[in-house]
Specification:
alpha/beta, six-stranded mixed beta sheet, 7 helices, 9 strands, globular, binds adenosine-5'-triphosphate, binds magnesium ion
Length: 238
């Protein structure tokens, strides 16, 4: 049993994801920037939550904390039972590797690794054989229309193609939670719709939870709930 499953067994009947009075500040040149100022949010399995808000509002910071990539300053994040802040650095990294898929705003693809290697990276150290990994990566990239681009470096791919590699990487470990930061930011309408379809398929088919951050145009009708981030808090939208 992996660590995340052990935690789930140890905490039956838990909420899926819950933030309580979450706060995050950065200190730059001795000046404190209070970005998240008391976020309370409870998310169920299978929800699609959209966080909208102006540039600089703190959306990426929030997703970074939810994804265990950054530690909050105060408050707690409960994910599938345990409080993330109680986990050691290693436990948090493992939880992320096994249960969370992140699509970064700038993709964060490794520039010297091919599309194939970037996606395969998400499957290392989770006990999957090389053959199974190869099968999985090829299927994912094929499904995303990149079957012919496995050996290309990110610099040899268009922005939309890089974005799809980032999505394949985020979906590779079959996460319970997908955090998508501006997943359709730079794309034309048709490509954006394709990307959205790829993101909502695991929600519909497997009850995955999707949280999307956007400062632009995003089809809000797919969301179960929409929030506007303002002054470091989440304001529910009708
Ligand atoms: N590592 C950091 N150090 C200092 N300040 C930071 C850091 N990361 C983010 N910030 C600050 O936090 C604020 C929120 O940034 P964040 O990237 O979360 O905004 P955002 O809502 O994602 O914006 P955008 O819509 O442009 O992506 C900004 O004022 C930014 O300068
Ligand atoms: Mg951002």
């Amino acid at each position: 049993m992996n660590i995340a499953d052990e935690m789930a067994v140890a905490h039956p009947g838990h909420v899926f994801l819950e933030c309580k009075d979450l706060r995050k500040s950065f200190t730059v040149k001795r000046k404190e920037i209070r970005v998240l100022r008391g976020i309370n949010l409870s998310v169920n399995r299978g929800e699609i939550v959209v966080i909208a808000g102006k540039t600089g509002a703190g959306k990426s910071t929030f997703l970074g904390v939810l994804g265990g990539l950054e530690r909050q300053t105060e408050g707690s994040v409960i994910f599938e039972g345990p409080c993330m802040e109680d986990l050691s650095h290693e436990e948090l990294a493992l939880l992320r590797r096994q249960k969370i898929g992140v699509i970064f705003q700038n993709f964060n693809l490794l520039p010297s690794w091919t599309a194939y290697e970037n996606v395969e990276a998400a499957l290392l150290h989770i006990g999957m054989s090389k053959t199974a990994r190869r099968e999985k990566v090829k299927t994912l990239l094929n499904n995303l229309g990149l079957g012919e681009r496995l050996d290309n470096l990110p610099s040899e791919l268009s922005i939309g193609q890089q974005q799809r590699v980032a999505i394949a990487r985020a979906l590779a470990n079959e996460p319970a939670l997908i955090l998508a930061d501006e997943p359709t930011g730079e794309l034309d309408g048709e490509t954006a719709q394709e990307i959205i379809d790829h993101l909502i398929t695991p929600v519909r088919e497997k009850g995955v939870t999707l949280i999307v951050a956007t400062h632009g145009i995003f089809p809000l009708d797919i969301a179960t709930r929409v929030f506007y981030m303002k002054d470091g808090t989440l304001v529910p939208q009708q």
